[in-house]
Amino acid sequence: KKRHLNDMGNKPSKRELLICETYDLTLEKLRNLECWFKEYLNHDYDYLTLEDFKIMMKQELLICDDALIASMFQEFDRFDDQKVGFEEFLISLSVLTTDSVDEKLAFAFNVLDLDSTGRLHWQEIFSVLEHLQSISNHENDKESLIAHVDSIFGTFDLDNSGYISMNEFKQGVLSDAYLISGLGIFFPQHSQNMTDIGEKVIFGDSCWKIVLKIMHGISKSINYISIWDSIEIDTAFTEIVHHDDQFSEYAPHIFNIIRAKCGIDPQDFLYSLGVEQILGNFLLGKLSSYRKKHTGMGKSGALFYFSDDTKYLVKTISTKEREFYAKNLEHYYNVN
Questions:
Q1: What percent of the chain lies above the pLDDT cut of 90?
Q2: Is 127's pLDDT higher than 80?
Q3: How far is CA 237 from CA 37, 251, 325, 330, in A?
Q4: What is the C-alpha separation between 205 and 199, in angstroms, rounded?
Q5: How far is CA 9 from CA 1, 116, 291, 321, in A?
Q6: What is the Rg, in whole angstroms, of the alpha carbon atoms belonging to the chain?
Q7: Is 96 in contact with 105 (CB distance < 8 Å)?
Q8: Would you state the pLDDT for residue 82?
Q9: pLDDT of amino acid 1
Q10: How far apart are CA 334 and CA 135, in angstroms?
Q11: pLDDT digits 0-9 by tens, 220-253
């Protein structure tokens, strides 16, 4: 544990020592998390109210549904006193990032249980999946979502009671996790290759919002291609799509063709790199995005990330590098 206590100049307090030991945090990560947490306190108290929590979830997870956020708040509120202190928040964060599968699934079940009855009803799962689909920019028809929720109940509701108990939920996820984590949109062809490479990027990390923007942008990109699936090849190499004021994509159709030539399935690609992974895994009680490469920044100052399933490496590039790749893209495409 010495590593945890010697990574910042200021001497840790007894409280910090205890928290670092309890939650296996470095002193730097603990202090960064606490500073990040305090940014959402809109009053003189040292805890989150439901309104504070709503703002946090909208900014950090893109979730805007009040019923879902209220259910999440109730699960984070470990002392059942209508407020979430920093150490309460750490307990739930620990469940989402490090604790056992059983605890993760209990957390997920309680979040999905919007009316706190101890049972999951059809409408609850439908409303949650409908909202999360909207975040990932998928415009699936209502009939498809209805059929998917029916499929979940057909698999999970073992006694045909019309609702899903916690034990049924746990058994169902263990037999087919993608029914939940695929959000009714994605059914990846290959199982995830989970390897402990790099450090997970989570709430409070200086890279979290950058990663979230990248993941959301990739989701928008693939959906854009699925809508506009034809373009003149002469213009495709110089095409720039501005999905919003923070994410632009270069030659999306060309790179889509390159991925297809490499045998990369669009659903697998999105499940590894898109915002769908965060949203889907959250419904399994997991908080996962990208993993920071242990080596940190390269010589150019670039950031390196692995997808959580370690299938892909994401690297930021400089303007000069972007211009070089744009200039040589057509030649690369024609040669390959």
A1: 31
A2: yes
A3: 43, 5, 11, 6
A4: 11
A5: 16, 45, 26, 36
A6: 21
A7: no
A8: 94
A9: 40
A10: 36
A11: 777 666 545 555 666 777 777 766 666 777 888 8
Q: Are 93 and 202 in contact (CB under 8 A)?
A: yes
Does 134 score more than 70 pLDDT? Answer: yes
Say how many C-beta atoms besides its own lie within 10 A of residue 22's C-beta. Answer: 12
**What is the band of 6 on the pLDDT scale with cuts at 50, 70, 90?**
very low
- β-bridge pairing 84-85 and 47-48: antiparallel
Q: Is this model's pTM higher than 0.85 or not?
A: no
Taking a C-beta distance cutoff of 8 angstroms, is the pair 57, 72 a contact?
yes
Distance (Å, whole) CA 125 – CA 207: 31
Residue type, 243: H
pLDDT tens digits, 135-173 = 876 666 788 889 989 999 999 999 999 999 999 999 999
- pLDDT digits over 55-99, tens only? 999 988 888 999 999 999 999 999 999 999 999 999 998 888 876
Written in H, E and C, the secondary structure of the chain is CHHHHCCCCCCCCHHHHHHHHHHCCCHHHHHHHHHHHHCCCCCCCCEECHHHHHHHHHHHCCCCCHHHHHHHHHHHCCCCCCCEEHHHHHHHHHHHHCCCHHHHHHHHHHHHCCCCCCCECHHHHHHHHHHHHHHCCCCCCHHHHHHHHHHHHHHHCCCCCCCECHHHHHHHHHHCCHHHHCCCCCCCCCCCCCCCCCEECCCCCCCHHHHHHHHHHHHHHHHHHHHCCCCCHHHHCCCEEECCCCCEEECHHHHHHHHHHCCCCHHHHHHHHCCHHHHHHHCCCCCCCEEECCCCCCCCCCCEEEECCCCCEEECCCHHHHHHHHHHHHHHHHHC
